[in-house]
Amino acid sequence: MKKIEHIGIAVKNLEEANKTYKAVMGSEHYKTETVESEGVATSFFRIGESKIELLAATSEDSPIAKFIEKRGEGIHHMAFAVDNIEAEIKRLEAEGFRLINDKPKQGADNKLVAFMHPKGAHGVLVELCQDINKFE
């Protein structure tokens, strides 16, 4: 793993959260995107080499809606940048970790992503991220 790519924060209202994080970060978000397959609208802020990703549900049955219903707004996941997502999936499985995704899938911000089950990481949902243009 190379670095913390971003921290995902589940929010009820993306517009209101954008205003809050604009004030916190001192700058506007640089990108919004909807990931239909996950039922989520996202907004990204940069902070140094890392990012904050705000996530709002676009449907009542999306994973983010379920997360907020169960736990409320707050940190949803920690994402790590990797050079080779398929190799990282295999490495983590060999270490005994359970992955939610055994193959990478299209995520937001031009990334391939895969998630590790939070039970294996002391309650933290871990996301692996690889730039799509680096996928071979």
Description:
It is globular and about 40 Å long. It has an 8-stranded mixed beta sheet. The model has no long low-confidence stretch (mean pLDDT 94). The protein is built from 3 helices and 8 strands. The chain is α+β, with helices and mostly antiparallel strands and 136 residues long. The longest helix is centred in the first third of the chain and has 12 residues, at 14-25.
List keywords for this structure.
136 residues; isomerase; alpha+beta; single chain; 8 strands
Map the helices and strands.
Blueprint (H helix, E strand, L loop, with lengths): L2 E8 L3 H12 L5 E5 L4 E8 L2 E8 L5 H9 L2 E8 L3 H10 L10 E2 L4 E6 L8 E7 L5
- The secondary-structure element order is EHEEEHEHEEE
Cα radius of gyration in angstroms: 15 Å
Q: Give the strand order of the largest sheet, numbering strands 1, 2, ... along the chain.
A: 2-3-4-1-5-8-7-6
Strand-residue fraction? Answer: 35-45%
The helix content is 10-25%
Low-confidence stretches: none
β-strand number: 8
Provide mean pLDDT, rounded.
94
State the end-to-end distance: 18 Å
Structural class: alpha+beta
Number of helices: 3
Shape: globular
Main beta sheet: strand number and arrangement?
8 strands, mixed
